[in-house]
Amino acid sequence: MSKTYEEINDKIKAKKAVVCTAEEVIDLVREKGAEKASEEVDVITTGTFGAMCSSGAFLNFGHATPPIRMTNILLNGVPAYGGLAAVDTYIGAAQMTEDPAGGYGGGHVIEDLIAGKRVHLRAWGPGTDCYVRKSIEADISLDDINEAYLYNPRNSYQNYGIATNTSSRTIYTYMGKLLPRMRNITYSSAGQLSPLLNDPHCDVTGIGTKIFLAGGEGYVAWQGTQFNTANEEVNGVPVGGSRTLALIGDMKGMDSSYVRGLDISGYGTSIALGVGIPLPVLDADVMRRAAISDEEIFSDMLDYSLPSGRKPMARYSYAQLRSGKVEYEGRSIRTSSMSSYAGAKKVAEELKDWIEKGEFTLARPSAPLPREGRLKHLVAKE
Amino acid sequence: MGTKIKIEFDEMNVQESVTYILSTEYGLKPNVLKAEIKDDSSGIMILTLEGDQSKIDEAAEGLRSKGFTVSSLERHILRDKARCFSCGACLSLCPTKSFTFDEKTWEVHLDIDTCIACGSCVTGCPVKALRLNL
Ligand code: SF4
Ligand code: SF4
């Protein structure tokens, strides 16, 4: 039996849609099989809440009198891009204040704005015949600027590598604090709840898919950067970082409980965002793929003390990783997650709630994501 | 685990062997968890004491009479719960396994009683929600 987007949306509008999280469908499919489960369930919700370094926001401040063409812009001391038209800017989550020890960056500016806080703007311009002003200071909030939307070039990574450190000193990486001599390992995917691990070939996720982005509504805008389909697959899903999504969404509808400015010691600033994608249960295959569990999703462990040429050292399932420890060459190593599984669950639950209440309908993608993508490497000049 | 105490000292008593006094004069079993001495010779020592509570009280009085400040360790690690988003980065950094996941919600719990104030988790937290309060 198959369903259409229209049928599912009609049920949502009538508040009759049956919605399950990607966690709930695991047991349902084990119990009843994918065929039966797909008849019962209309929508499956996924979720993830972790670091999404390639994120940022487009802002338009509005014009002052007299107006200024901003070429150098600081928001709470964090530089924002000055190469767009007069009062447009883009602030990247990984941008730091001039003093990198400050622990405050673009991700924190975005969190503060979404939390309704005022942010201090300082900007300078060359002063031209049409834009005579040369500098400006203002306190802005989300309410009193024009547009404010996240546009994140690479979010929601489909799986990711596991990090460890074989060296004799503690190293501080974007995968967290790694203790010497492999005394811990870190991992970062939401596994069985992660959007792209439940729709591994993007069969029902495409450009224009409506999503949960940081507590508001957003859309899949494009394939994410470093979109890669070339990795080995086990149980139908890739091992290690593969597909990614570019996401867009209005900051004015977002909820700061799904946003965290990050200060990753030794690496820099970033942002953690809650992202959830609804999967329409068009047929039993959608259900079968979404029923994947942490026991069936694998990732390879890499040595982050090596500057390059990291080779897989061991392979673990997310069930093993989430148990708190894994075995390596006869010894037990403790694990840490970098993304919040509690947060991933909350995202999937909240999106489920919106759909059940008839507040969130599904959007059919306007174009598919690429079937293929390969990573190119940057060749440095000798 | 024993009783956790904090002893503060300054240049007047920095050279006294606190652990020797605790074991020989009061029959206690001290275990130093952390000792920090600053450039001005003041500092703090965090230790656990095993033995009778009456002896621990006596020892505390005895050390106070030598000019040490002795206090029990309370709220020695602080977590900003509103900022913590239960990522779990702290779990494998803690030598005493003071952080655990809630089995149902996967929220991260902190057991302050087992924390030995080593500070390992503080730099590992990506939202800087953890702080030592010594
Ligand atoms: S590392 Fe920080 S944010 Fe993450 S669970 Fe621990 S205290 Fe919470
Ligand atoms: S300070 Fe040390 S012992 Fe205390 S919670 Fe943090 S890592 Fe654990």
Tell me what you see in this structure.
The complex is a heterodimer of chains A (382) and B (134). With 382 residues, chain A is an alpha+beta fold. Chain A folds into two domains: 5-52 and 151-368, no CATH class; 62-145, no CATH class. In chain A, 18% of the residues lie in helices and 33% in strands. In chain A, strands 3, 4, 7, 10, 16, 17, 20, 21 and 22 form a nine-stranded antiparallel sheet that branches. In chain A, a hairpin with a 2-residue loop joins strand 26 and strand 27 (331-337). In chain A, helix 2 (24-40) packs antiparallel against helix 5. The longest helix of chain A has 17 residues, at 24-40. Chain B has 134 residues and is of the alpha+beta class. Chain B folds into two domains: 3-72, Alpha-Beta Plaits; 77-132, Alpha-Beta Plaits (2-Layer Sandwich), CATH 3.30.70.20. Chain B contains three helices and eight strands. In chain B, a hairpin with a 5-residue loop joins strand 2 and strand 3 (43-50). In chain B, helix 1 crosses helix 2 (53-65). The longest helix of chain B is centred in the middle third of the chain and has 13 residues, at 53-65. Chain B is elongated and about 50 Å long. The two termini of chain B are 19 Å apart. The mean pLDDT of chain B is 91. Chain A binds chain B through residues 49-51, 103, 172, 176-177, 179, 183-186, 260-265, 270, 272, 324, 334-343, 345, and chain B through 83, 85-93, 101-102, 105-108, 120, 123-124, 126-128.
What's the total number of strands of chain B? 8
Oligomer: heterodimer
- Portion of residues within helices of chain B: 10-25%
Q: Determine the most extensive contact between two protein chains.
A: A-B, 32 and 22 residues
**Percentage beta strand of chain A:** 25-35%
**Count of helical stretches of chain B:** 3
**What is the domain tally of chain A?**
2
Which word captures the global form of chain B? elongated
User: How far apart are the first and last residues' alpha carbons of chain B, in Å?
Assistant: 19 Å
Query: Separation of termini of chain A?
Result: 60 Å
- Number of helical regions of chain A: 7
Which structural class matches the secondary elements of chain A? alpha+beta
